[in-house]
Amino acid sequence: MGMGLEQDAALGDYYPLAYRRLIGTLQVMGVPAADAGEVAQEAFVRLIPRWDTIRTYESPDGWLRTVAWRVWLNRRRKHARVSLVDEVPEPAQVPGISREDRTSLLAALEELPEGHREVVVLHYLVDLPVARIADELGVAPGTVKSRLSRARSALAATLAPLEVDDV
Question: In this protein, which residues make up the domain named RNA polymerase sigma factor 70 region 4 type (predicted)?
């Protein structure tokens, strides 16, 4: 049941960038750097036997994020971890803001409740629409909108205005 050379090459091309994107997203969502790599690897292990199907999806990255997040939640439940982030992670660059502002943003995200942090990361950093986030997280679109609203209010109260090139 091995993959043909063509499928193997396609997965080989997909893996490096998708792996880095997944690690960065997981870290911003509050998964410690030490765990993000393992969680991402487990998601890819689950992807390999399904690659022929998943590569035809509109967004294989969405499938990976969903699987990785569920792996993380199951791991946390199993190990009864309480602390989500021991240090401010260094995810992929957040475009349009300085390193100092990015550090402040990550610290503020860390303070958000888990569900709020998820929707903020998926909406603003991964650039997913509300309906897609609802599908990935298995919640109603109204729940996503409510969490986004509450998260924006909490972030506005925590953060000094960031200079972003928005005209």
Answer: 104-155
Separation between Cα atoms, residue 28 and residue 83, nearest integer Å: 14
Give the residue from 148, 110, 115, 153 showing the smallest Cα distance to 129. 148
Q: Which residue has the tokens 């998943």?
A: 54
Nearest to 118 by CA among 134, 105, 103, 142: 134
* Residue 141 pLDDT: 92
What contacts 85, CB < 8 A, 6 or more positions away?
30, 32, 110
- CA torsion 157-153-32-81 (nearest 10°) is 100
pLDDT band at residue 137, thresholds of 50, 70 and 90? Answer: confident
Q: Tokens representing 19? A: 């792996």
Q: How far apart are CA 92 and CA 19, in angstroms?
A: 12
> Identity (one letter) of the amino acid at 123?
H
